[in-house]
Amino acid sequence: DKDRYNAGHATRYEQNLVHLIKTLRKEFNAPEAKVVVATLGQTAKDSTEENEKLILDAQLAVDGRTDKYPKYKGNVSTVYTHPLSQGGASNSHYNGNAQTYMDIGLAMGQAMVELLKGK
Fold this sequence. Notes:
Shape: globular
Low-confidence stretches: none
Radius of gyration: 14 Å
Order of helices and strands: HEHEH
Strand content: 5-15%
Largest sheet: 2 strands, parallel
């Protein structure tokens, strides 16, 4: 979330996210570990906020259903959380809205179930 305040961080977000996934898999000796990424809830796909858009696009790019990272097919999923956010930005902890947290958690859990089922 804080990377959206720094253009340099936002520009490298995708590269860093790919590196994070690779590093976690290596660190835990789990080369096929399933990964679920959640986007920033305050950022819509049609956002004009440059840094937020860079980060959102990076998070969506690693989803295994895109063609950008074929090695992530079936083992990385991205949950687009903007429709689930019911107020506030992630840096304000969604104004403490428990329903937002529940909905995002459920969506991430469902995404993991789908990865584990091989869908």
